[in-house]
Amino acid sequence: MRDNEYLLYKIENNVAIITLNQPDTMNAIGPDFAQTLDEAIEYASNEANAIVLLGSERAFSAGANLKGARFQDDSAEMDLGINLENVYNPFLDKLVNLPIPLIVGVRGAAAGIGCSIALMGDIIVAGKSAYFLQAFCNVGLVPDGGAAFLLSRSIGRVKAMELMLLGQRYPAEQAYQDGLITRLVEDDEVISTAVEYAEKLAKGPIKTLGMIRKSAWAALDSNFNDQLKLERKLQKTAGLTQDFKEGVAAFREKRKPKFSGK
Fold this sequence. Notes:
Layout: E1 7-12, E2 15-20, H1 31-47, E3 50-54, E4 59-61, H2 81-96, E5 102-106, E6 109-111, H3 112-119, E7 123-127, E8 131-133, H4 147-155, H5 157-166, E9 170-171, H6 172-177, E10 183-185, H7 190-202, H8 206-219, H9 224-239, H10 242-252
Parallel strand pairs: 2-3, 3-5, 4-6, 5-7, 6-8, 7-10
Antiparallel strand pairs: 1-2, 8-9
């Protein structure tokens, strides 16, 4: 995967660092941008042990690109659900099913679909300038990108309703206090902190971390008995990995484990 007009891509220490790179539009995401990001995530999931997804200094992403040509004709009838069905929803589903951890670093605005993408992170690091915004109601639309699901299950229905119905900024400091994000740091520490998390995870038992992700996502929408059955299945698989054997050996020998991801 190479750098392109939408993003920067590099791999360091088994970590894929993907940086949204259209600062002039505050990383407003149109279908082509989303498809390119989808491709980058696919490459990363096969080449790295963890992914860091970053935005620009002023914005992680301002959301959908409303300046596109398709929005210029006031008389045209548009099915705005088509791009959700064909592009955005499959991309978000891919993030749910990633086999490796996803760490997101947010500075400035994370709005609309950009907010949803940011909230898909397993670990979310936000700078003090960051804010999250569900501005759909301000343009006569409903939240998409799984926003209602992600917010309601993270901070509760009442707070999620406030954000979605009023369309006001949700500062990172408040988001941290409410449990929406993992870490709140100075803006100039966002990248280094996100990469530090990713490098630590990249040295871990990768197959097992992927199964932990699967279990956590399933728990959001499962009943207790179904979750117990899934955990039983995943634990069997984890117990057959080389990393489990190494972990037990390291525990017995009172040393740090050296995981291989196998």
